């Protein structure tokens, strides 16, 4: 049995679909089963509740051999690192007591960075907590998701601008969630691996924000440019979208760390590459959805 957390999130739902397609036995933890497609519900076990709840997690992990673990970001968190840790502790208690042998988790690049890096630091603390249980663990360590571009959909549509505090000429890796889900599903189905390790997923290329804007201009057929803004302005915009001050600071600190080399700590190599190129993702995913998603809140989260 494989347990999938966040089965309605952008990554979790794709992991779930891949496992079901391969006829793997799957159990999900979900607050609202109605958010899952009815045909899918007939093929999986469902435990209703939150994976923050020790009783729910213990029930879901019973007789399971593998777990897909992801902590959804809470935009109102008052202490992001503590939130990640508190959310993960019930799972760790169940891991120590139960049958689960392997965990695949969604984390971040940044091991060895040497100073706080916001949400990346919180993710790495979560990794350490899970590893401390002794379970075999693969932390899928991420740069930015390509889907994060949807956070800028409104300004791209209305102003033709992407705003961020990241340097315009800094090449950074990005990865599509579909590629992350493919790696996670493969590891969850593979019962041979042991030990604990990080698996960086860096996409096929590094791009600057200026290059991203140029690709968007070509794909969308409308002018898009990138504008770097001060960190304080970025945090104010996040607060206006409903994020707590600590969460806005955590996101800003992570982007500041990227400016200072956070995502370059792991060298690019073929083993870290994933197949989806940004241009193809824009054409296949972003462009068809732009007008419909741009009217949603730009604080949309991907999990």
Instruction: Based on Cα principal axes, name the global outline.
Output: globular
Spatial order of strands in the largest sheet: 3-2-1-4-5-6-10
How much of the polypeptide forms β-strand, as a percent range? 15-25%
Count, helices: 11
CATH fourth-tier homologous superfamily of the largest domain: NAD(P)-binding Rossmann-like Domain
Q: How large, in whole angstroms, is the Cα Rg?
A: 19 Å
Please report the total strand number as a whole number. Answer: 12
Please give the CATH architecture of the largest domain. 3-Layer(aba) Sandwich
| Tally of separate domains | 2
Order of helices and strands: EHEHEHEHEHEEHEEHEEHEHHH
Largest sheet, if any? Answer: 7 strands, parallel
Word description of this protein:
Helices cover 42% and strands 17% of the residues. With 303 residues, it is α/β, with parallel strands linked by helices. The protein folds into two domains: 2-145 and 175-200, Rossmann fold, CATH 3.40.50.720; 206-293, UDP-galactose 4-epimerase, domain 1. The strands form three sheets. Strands 3-2-1-4-5-6-10 form a seven-stranded parallel beta sheet, with helices on both faces. The protein has a three-stranded mixed beta sheet with strand order 7-9-11. Helix 3 packs across helix 4 (80-97), helix 4 (80-97) packs parallel to helix 5 (119-131) and helix 9 packs antiparallel against helix 10 (245-259). Mean pLDDT is 93; it is low at 295-303.
């Amino acid at each position: 049995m494989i347990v999938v957390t966040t089965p309605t999130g952008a990554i979790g739902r794709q992991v779930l679909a891949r496992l079901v397609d391969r006829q793997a036995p799957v159990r999900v933890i979900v607050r609202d089963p109605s958010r899952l497609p009815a045909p899918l519900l007939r093929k999986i076990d469902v435990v209703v509740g939150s994976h923050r709840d020790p009783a729910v997690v213990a029930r879901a992990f019973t007789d399971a051999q593998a777990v897909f673990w992801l902590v959804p970001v809470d935009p109102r968190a008052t202490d992001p690192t503590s939130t990640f840790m508190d959310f993960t502790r019930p799972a760790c208690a169940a891991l120590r007591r139960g049958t689960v042998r392997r965990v695949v988790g969604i984390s971040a690049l940044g091991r060895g960075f040497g100073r706080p890096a916001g949400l990346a630091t919180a993710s790495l603390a979560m990794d350490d907590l899970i590893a401390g249980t002794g379970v075999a663990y693969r932390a899928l360590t991420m740069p930015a998701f390509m889907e994060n571009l949807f956070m800028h959909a409104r300004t791209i549509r209305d102003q033709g601008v992407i705003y961020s505090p990241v340097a315009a000429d800094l090449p950074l890796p990005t990865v599509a969630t579909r590629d992350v889900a493919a790696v996670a599903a493969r590891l969850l189905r593979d019962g041979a691996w042991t030990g604990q390790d990080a698996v960086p997923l860096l996409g096929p290329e590094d791009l600057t924000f200026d290059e991203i804007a140029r690709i968007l201009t070509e794909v969308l057929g409308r002018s898009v440019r990138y504008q770097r803004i001060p960190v304080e302005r970025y945090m104010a915009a996040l607060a206006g979208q409903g994020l707590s001050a600590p969460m806005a600071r955590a996101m800003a600190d992570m982007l500041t760390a990227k400016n200072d080399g956070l995502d370059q700590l792991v060298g690019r190599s073929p083993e870290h590459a994933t197949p989806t190129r940004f241009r193809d993702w824009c054409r296949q995913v972003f462009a068809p959805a732009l007008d419909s998603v741009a009217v949603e809140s730009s604080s949309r989260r991907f999990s």
